[in-house]
Specification:
542 residues; mainly alpha
Length: 542
């Protein structure tokens, strides 16, 4: 794999991880401010927003980056600039339209989320339809800015410049979380407002954060404009393409990534529609069912999604690079990129997922509270992160080789299977049944994607399979080591207390990383996966 791909992946991975970690750790002070009731209301508001924002933006950066990368490869730079200029206007219009739709549909959506106010009130103690409407309307303002911002990110990524996207992403998250926590603190502790007002401020923070990210992108645009104009002066001018043709190509490219963008929310929506009713039918009380649902779909999911950040970074970086190799029919480079991608993905996500599963007890205590049930669900759910990551990356690869139609098919089939088997598996295994249904649904989609990649890219998985076995062996050795360290620590520390849990996690993580790194260096595996980074490290140490 080229150093440019690895460097771009590293930049986006770093930015995505920082953003995700910030998005994870703010939960601790936010939960302390608004409690279970406020967090529940926050989630009710974010359900429709997540789906809307995914539809509005999920395909834009990737589709635009693929389009611009394609024509930049042909030295037709004016085509990409033409898209950028008209796209900014269109994104402003569509973003404002999406805002209006979500704003005025909020009462209907709130009724869908909470169909019976009395029933929900008994379950959540005070959440009402009107509260959900207010929260949805507060968060809907972000739709005005985010699509516009996504287009600019796609433009930079199409020029294989990942820094602007990474930095703007981090700034957006910092501004959002700062506004969210400060705003909630002011409402709850200084002016002594109610929880609904605090959560409205917290959700409106999405709009404020988007403004912060947009300002960063404008700064990068001003800084990089001379270079971009220089490229424009080298334009061959042999391709004449209308705006209609441009947007047709963008729309066709964006559809699969819109679907991929709502994949996770849609799998969660299946649980939303079926989980509580099924659990109640088994004799469980509604409050208990809601608690189990929150443990699975919010608390555990928030932790499990962290390792998936890597897949997101790969998706953003892969599309323009694989498109370039595919357009140039450089099959050798394409296969090298695929080999490196699958190996690095497995190398990084597998230990993260296994680590979360093994240390689920202390992790759950640190972020939420000491809860045996929560730890058990997190331990079961954690390995699903590997499937989330694999699906994102295989979907990006299909986009790069222009076989995105199969992404749509595989995901819809996976969702259909999840929908069909979710209720029977919940009836058989309760909360874990929903996890098993998700695993089967995602596995179905991934297997289809892998077969399509093999057929259309004439790609064989022999090297990935051999290296994968080695990576799995190293992970097993790491897990056994951490397991014994964990058991020894339990003789002196208790995972029921936050500080002691944090100490357990830190010590286990140090031992785990040390063993994993030692095995990787001793076998020279790390030199094959990260040749540029290891060479640079050697030079600095020598």
């Amino acid at each position: 794999m080229s150093s440019k791909l690895m460097r771009g992946t590293f930049i986006l991975t770093l930015g995505t991880y920082i953003s995700k970690f910030l998005g994870l750790f703010y939960v601790i002070p936010f939960f302390a401010l608004v409690g279970k009731q406020g967090v529940a209301l926050y989630q009710y508001g974010y359900v429709p927003y997540t789906i809307f924002i995914s539809i509005a933006t999920a395909g834009i950066p990737l589709a635009v980056s693929k389009f611009i990368s394609k024509y930049n490869t042909l030295e037709e730079y004016a085509v990409g600039r033409k898209l950028f200029k008209s796209g900014m206007v269109i994104m402003l219009i569509t973003g404002f339209a999406a805002f209006l739709i979500l704003y005025f549909l909020s009462p209907l959506l709130a009724d869908f989320i909470i169909p019976d106010a009395d029933e929900v009130k008994n379950a959540t103690e005070s959440v009402a339809v009107g509260d959900v409407v207010a929260v949805i309307r507060a968060v809907s303002f972000a739709l005005i800015v985010v699509p516009f911002m996504s287009l600019i990110r796609g433009f930079f990524q199409g020029h294989q410049s990942m820094g602007p996207s990474a930095v703007s992403q981090v700034v957006e998250q910092i501004v959002r979380i700062a506004f969210l926590l400060i705003g909630a603190f002011v409402v709850m502790k200084i002016i002594h407002g109610d929880i609904v007002e605090a959560v409205k401020v917290a959700t409106f923070a999405a709009f404020v954060g988007a403004i912060g990210g947009l300002l960063v992108l404008f700064w990068y645009w001003i800084k990089r404009r001379p270079y971009l104009n220089e490229l424009l002066s080298k334009d061959k001018g042999t391709v004449q393409i209308s705006l209609k043709e441009i947007y047709k190509e963008i729309f066709i490219s964006a559809i699969p990534f819109i679907i991929v963008g709502i994949a996770n929310p849609m799998f969660q929506m299946v649980d939303t529609l079926t989980f509580n009713k099924t659990m109640v039918s088994l004799g469980m009380g509604l409050n208990e069912a809601n608690d189990a649902f929150a443990t699975l779909n919010y608390n555990s999911h928030k932790l499990v999604i962290i390792p998936v950040s890597l897949a997101t970074a790969f998706s953003l970086t892969l599309v323009p690079m694989i498109t370039k190799s595919y357009v140039n029919q450089n099959i050798k480079d394409l296969k090298l990129q695929l080999n490196q991608t699958f190996q690095v993905l497995l190398y990084l996500t597998l230990p993260a997922a296994l680590g979360i599963s093994l240390l689920a007890g202390p992790l759950y205590t640190v972020f939420y509270e000491a809860d045996t049930f929560g730890a058990e669900i997190l331990a079961t759910y954690a390995p699903v992160a590997i499937l989330f990551a694999l699906f994102s990356v295989t979907a990006a690869i299909l986009q790069g080789i222009n076989e995105q139609r199969f992404t749509v098919f595989s995901l819809l089939l996976g969702l259909l299977i999840k929908l069909i088997i979710n209720i029977p598996l919940i009836e058989a295994y309760e909360t874990k049944g929903a996890i098993y249904a998700t695993i089967i649904g995602y596995l179905t989609a991934i297997i289809i994607n892998l077969f399509v990649i093999r057929y259309y890219a004439n790609y064989h998985y022999r090297l990935v399979f051999r290296r994968g076995i080695l990576i799995i062996i190293f992970n097993m050795i790491m897990v056994i080591t951490v397991f014994f360290v964990y058991k020894i620590l339990l003789l002196f520390l208790s995972p029921e207390y936050s500080i002691q849990s944090l100490i357990i996690i830190a010590i286990c993580a140090i031992f785990g990383m040390a063993v994993y790194f030692y095995l990787s260096v001793k076998s020279r595996l790390i030199y094959f996966l990260f040749p540029e980074q290891m060479s640079s490290l050697k030079r600095r140490l020598s």
